[in-house]
Specification:
58 residues, mainly alpha
Length: 58
């Protein structure tokens, strides 16, 4: 997805939201940024703090 599309979607989304940009990386470059990616995912999981309840129906 072009960065401009991601930025437009992020701007239109409701809070809470966060756009993480991995500058200079393409779709197949995840391994080169593995440590940062793992930290971003861990932070996202920690931020959930029970906001979503599985099976709550929407």
């Amino acid at each position: 997805m072009p960065l401009s599309h991601a930025q437009t979607l992020c701007e239109a989304a409701r809070q809470p939201k966060r756009l993480e940009v991995f500058a200079g990386l393409g779709h197949n470059d995840l391994l080169s940024a593995r440590e940062r990616y793992v930290q971003v995912v861990k932070r996202w999981i920690g931020d959930q703090d029970g906001r979503a309840t599985p099976g709550a129906g929407g």
